[in-house]
Write a structure and sequence with these properties.
Strand content: 15-25%
Number of domains: 2
Radius of gyration: 17 Å
CATH superfamily of the largest domain: Reverse transcriptase/Diguanylate cyclase domain
Shape: globular
Distance between the termini: 9 Å
Order of helices and strands: EHEEHEHEHHHHH
Structural class: alpha+beta
CATH architecture of the largest domain: 2-Layer Sandwich
Helix content: 40-55%
Largest sheet: 5 strands, mixed
Number of strands: 5
Strand order of the largest sheet: 2-3-1-4-5
Amino acid sequence: MFIITADQIDSTHLDDIAGSTVQRLNEKYGSELALPADRTAGDEIQVLVSRGSTAIDIILDLTRTAQWSVGCGVGGVRTPLPPHTREATGPGFIAARAAVERAKRAQLRFALVSDSSPDVTEPGALIDLLLLIRSRRTPEGWELFDLVSRGMTQVAAAGELKISPQAVSKRARAAGITVELSAVPALAAVLENLDN
């Protein structure tokens, strides 16, 4: 299982977004969650999923705004599952706690920890590379990414954005959109292997 624990950055000086984020994650990923996303303590949220692809999607979702330190724990969860994520336990949750604490000190505010191997450097480093590309994306790059990631072709996106196909192609290259869209399924497979 994959347990994503996210702690809001600088929550003492910023508005609390934990509640609205939990609601948004439940609405967006509801059927893919093992249990509903939950606020665990103060400004911290936790999500439990069984698929690596969903874990990657949520990690990318949360890190996009740079408002969260995001830890992903991989490992066992005690069954039967309780009704609420905050009540669940197991080695995967201990790994998630270690991951979020490590994420608070990481440059990209992300860390990955497995209950079977606490020092999971390779998969975490691969995710960090994708997060680095995303951290350098401009608002215009995100605008194009949002269109293309929903299935729109670059030609159609050019029409939507009222720019030339050549300008879209240049923007897509600068934003690393093709790299990201190719990397996400591969990273999901890496996570799945880690959970086996």
